[in-house]
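Q&A log
Question type: sequence-to-structure
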Amino acid sequence: MAAALAAFVAGAWLLQQQATLPAPWLAAAVGLLAVAVLARDAGVSKNALHSIGVLVAAFALGAAYAALRAHLRLADELAFAHEGRDVRVRGVIASLPAQLQRGVRFEFDVEAAQPISVPARVSLAWYGAGAAVRAGERWEFTVRLRRPHGSANPGGFDLEAWMLERGLRATGYVREGARDSAAAALRLDAMVWRPSYAVQRARDVLRERLQQRLRDERYAGVLVALVLGDQRAIGEQDWLLFNRTGIAHLVSISGLHITMIAGLAALAAGALWRRSPRALAFAPAQSAAALA
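Response status: OK
Response body:
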């Protein structure tokens, strides 16, 4: 089973290294054939030839799966002809709003759009006094969108790849100054209760409380970054200091560090718990590790 999973991942990895994608019909055909082979070999006695066939089928299935996923993601795009047009959209604030100098930027899950179709998730900036939005709110407003564009400097930040990874297939801004009253921004619901939106609203509330408590402290942005992963409140002077002292990575991947420490604490607690018969009679070691 582990070898088949490794072959599946290897197939997906190899597909990602290609300059072009195979045709959707070819990827679907290969995937169906691989599934048929794996289903047929499920009840066959294991031997060397059978193992090789399973690995090849799993490899092919991984490549086909990655190809189809890529086609689906790329199909959700904004047409060239629709760039720069006024579009009326309705949807939900799907991320923690980032504070800009003159407004906010957030990810927006589009539920409906008129008069053209737009990608399911876009990145929007809202400048001006009307930019007081919270994660999980449902809004309707007029926007102007464009396809993702970024610099292609070797070794630099790849904005297009970053947006593709996050499912953001267009970027734009809210047209708050539209003259037509029908184009005014409207908040339709104060909260849309879905798990992902609830998590973002909780992060929003926690960030607000941290900022209120630490309003006059220089390290406020650093604590927000360590707790919530929101690094945008860290000032340029602090980033310069972190880079010069070689500790910028501690802020960038602090969440991973916390996870590693939590994992080590769980391993240590479980190992110690197993050494005590009385503790094992009270609760299993796995429960103690999870609690730790």
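Response note: The CA atoms of residues 266 and 289 lie 4 Å apart.
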